[in-house]
Structure formats: C-alpha cells, structure tokens
Amino acid sequence: MIEQPVTIINSLGLHARPAALLVKAASQFTSEVKLGKDDMFINGKSIMGVMMLAAECGSVLRIRADGPDEAEAVAALMALVNQGFNEE
Amino acid sequence: MSLCPRDFLERWQEVLELESLTGDISLDRRLPNADLASPGLALAGYTARFMPDRMHVLGETEMSYLASLDASARRAALEGFLSHDLPLVFVTKGQDVSVEFLELARAREVPVFRTQLKTAPFYRAIKPIAEEAFAPRTTTHGSMADVYGVGLLFVGRSGIGKSECVLDLIERGHRLVADDVVQITRRGKDVLIAQGHELAAHHMEIRGVGLIDIPALFGIRSVRQQKRVEVVVQLEDWETAKDADRSGLTRQENTILGVSLPKVVVPLNPGKNLTVISEVVAMNHLLRMMGIDVASAFNQRLILKMKEQRGLREYLQEDFE
Predict the structure, then answer these.
(1) Which residue of A has its CA nearest to B239?
(2) How far off is chain B from A15, nearest CA to CA, in Å?
(3) Residue B139 phi, psi (nearest 5)
C-alpha cells in the first residue's frame, strides 16, 4: 500500500468534471484506490464518494492505492491533479 | 423511396379528391422532388425562374387567366407551359379543363389530375404526403421502444441484449416500436421518426425461444406504430465501455440523418438491471426537457460549498492573532 499527498490547484476544486476524470482513471487499475481529505477516505472508483470529499482548491488530497499496480495508479492520479485537470 | 403520379391515385385519391383527366399517361414516371408550384407568371410568359421539375398546381387564378386570353394567345400560353417536361399538373377546385388543354397535355405526355379541393387546402393536404415520400431515411440495427412517452433507440453489438431489454420493458408496460430493423425517417430538420418494417409487424426474435408475436402475447397496448427518436441508448460491454459518463455533466451525441440526439452509453455486466436504467434514462430526459438538469444543479451546489471552504481557509491562514 502506498499513499501520496497532493494539493488541488484548479480553482473550482474537485467538482463533478474532475471527479469523473479521477474516477475514470482510477477504474483502469486493478488496485484498490482510496482518496482522502482530512480524516475522510472514500473509494476512488465511486464518483459520489469523490464528490462528497468536496476537496476545494488549496486543500490536500491523499491518494492511496493497494494492489499489483498501486504505484502506477497513484502516479496517474497525481498527474491528473497536478495538471489541474486541464482547468484553470 | 420515391413517388410517381400513380401513387397519388392509388393511395391518396380520397384524401386529395383526385381524378386523372389524361387517363393512364405517364402515371409511372418518377417525380423528381416533393416541390409544388403554381405557374402564374410562367403562363403569362415570364419563364426566367420557372421550375419545370416541380409539380404544378393550377388554381382559379391560372385557369381564369387562361380563360381571359383570346384563342391564339391561350394556345401559345398552354404550348409554352406544357413544352417543359412537366412531371405532373394539378387543377384545383374541380374546375373545367378545356379539350385543347388536355390534348396538348396528352401530346406532351404530361399527366393532368383534377382535385375537388380548393387550392390552399390542396397544398396543405398534399405537402406532407409528398415530403414524407421524399424524406431522408435510413435503416438501423437496433431496438426502439416508447418508455414513458420517450422514444429510446437501443443500439449495440449483436447479442448484447437489446431485444431482451426491450422485452423486459414491454413486460413492464412500455411499448415496442421496432426490433432488430428500425427504419428512421427525418421530418423537417430535426425530428426523427422510427418505425418497424411492415413485414416484421412487431415480432421479435429472442435467443433460445425463437420468433415471438408481441401484440399477441402482451396485447395491443404493448406496441406502437411509430415514435420520435429522442435518446440513443448505446449498450456496451463492461470492459470496453470507455466513454461511459460518470457524472451526467457531459452530453454525448449521436448523429442520425444529420440530426444530433443525446446519447447514453450504458456499460453492461451480468445481472445489471438494464430495464430500470432505461426507465431512468427516459425520465431523466423528461426532466431535462423541463429544464431540470440534475447533474449540473448538484455540481453547482458542490462548487459553492468548496468556494465557502476555500474562503474560510484563506481567512484563517492570514489570521495571526
């Protein structure tokens, strides 16, 4: 199991569109993916869960993966967040 | 599909109150298009913008104009008019047509039909018939059902379960329009109408059972002759369904005959209740049509909440008290 923190940089935060992108990316891996903010962790493959985090711009998202492709999964999700989901 | 003068006589004689004044002449020639025109100015000699490939409608204006001419001018006008290779001429309001007119028409092999309808009602009655005959159409492999009044067109690879899905919908009281072969016709610019092949007549093939007769099994209320296509439901295998929407924010579209329709991609795995999903797709479409967009309303709430949190965080960060 690995975990990495990443700061949300797009100004609108983790709203529906970025949440959908994260969930789609996470679903491509066989590892279990969890996303957390503060002390709340949710299933990274569930869009409702991801939106419930309400991770605003500037907040820290913790990406946790457990499974055979955990390193790739965390790297892919980190990359998405660091690109600001191609939003402002 | 195309149209020939005989079709009017055989299929719409009563509606259009038609008779042929030129017998069997040129009844089977294909009409070039669905357009109609009244040739007023062409009869008067101005033929610069004359469209000879249209069906021509002679109303009281044209006929009384012809009657007002002296014999030689009338003959010249008629010869000029009929010298174009006209596909079909209508005379409205049951007006008398001179022997001279009909002889010239026969010589030119132009069919002349008389209707008892007045000109304006005749135009109103014949236009939809002609346009329907020339409407762009295509045939799709899929299943079409009316779910809560919303026309859902199910598409997807052979064997994925389109027919089974529609069968389940019928069982729940929705209505079958067509299975397997769906004929789609465009009305106007943006309406697509689906119907089944007349041979299929609401029969379906269910794997393992064979051919079944839907109205015989489920009653006449289980079928519908035609329905506007409103949403395309694309069924995909779970593994390959890459573009399934997760938020409902992105609108996918499918273009048929130049008309773009909302498309919903549904990934399938064993045990998935596609029937309920289809009902929800239909109801969601109705909500959207009423201006209620659930996904974006939800997203606005989420964005607002995050904005508040961000404001609070920034306020506290600068607070060194």
Answers:
(1) A28
(2) 6
(3) -120, 130
B201-234 pLDDT, tens digit per residue, is 899 988 889 899 999 999 999 999 999 999 999 9
In whole angstroms, what is the distance from residue A48 CA to residue A28 CA?
A: 18
In sequence order, the β-bridge partners of residue B259 are B256
For chain A, how many helices (H) and strands (E)? Answer: 3, 4
Instruction: Indicate which residue of B175, B180, B186, B202 is catalytic.
Output: B180
CA distances B35 to B128, B134, B155, B207, Å, are: 11, 10, 35, 46
B245 in contact with chain A, both atoms CB, cutoff 8 A: yes
Domain ranges of chain B: 5-133, 136-292
Please tell me which of the candidates B249, B307, B310 has its beta carbon nearest to residue A17. Answer: B249
User: Of B216, B280, B221, which Cα lies nearest the Cα of B248?
Assistant: B280
Active site residue B246: yes
Contact assignment for A16 to B305 by CB distance below 8 Å = no
Q: Divide the 88 residues of chain A into consecutive groups of 10 and give the mean pLDDT of each group.
A: 94 92 92 92 91 92 95 96 90
Tell me which of B238, B247, B298 to substitute to probe the interface with A (most A C-beta atoms closer than 10 Å): B247
Cβ distance of B246 and A20 shorter than 8 Å:
yes
pTM: 0.74
Classified by CATH at the fold level, domain B5-133 comes out as 3.40.1390
B136-292 has which fold? Rossmann fold (3.40.50)
Pairing of strands B231-237, B89-91: unpaired
Please tell me which residue of chain A has the smallest CA distance to B310: A56
Predicted-assembly ipTM surpassing the 0.85 threshold: no
**CB A82, CB A25: distance < 8 Å:** no
B154 burial class (0-12, 13-18, 19+ CB within 10 angstroms)?
Answer: buried
